[in-house]
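Z., the sequence and structure:
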Amino acid sequence: MFLSRGIEVDSWVRIDGSCEILGEVVGDEAQFRLGNPRATGLDMVTDERGLARLVERCSEVLETMRSDEEGE
């Protein structure tokens, strides 16, 4: 949750197999757009260290999901 001057902002996105994901490097930041680039969606901007942490965590979660599927 983001709090600024008394305003709370909370965002989430559901990504399924057909979700459009765009990404590019601008300067020293990675910028991503999840969803339709011309309509609703979620933008995410991260530096290199933050992106590395995100990739590491996503990989851990994906591995867990896949091992849970194998155990079914």
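The mean pLDDT is 88. The first helix runs from residue 48 to 71.

Let me know what you think.
H.
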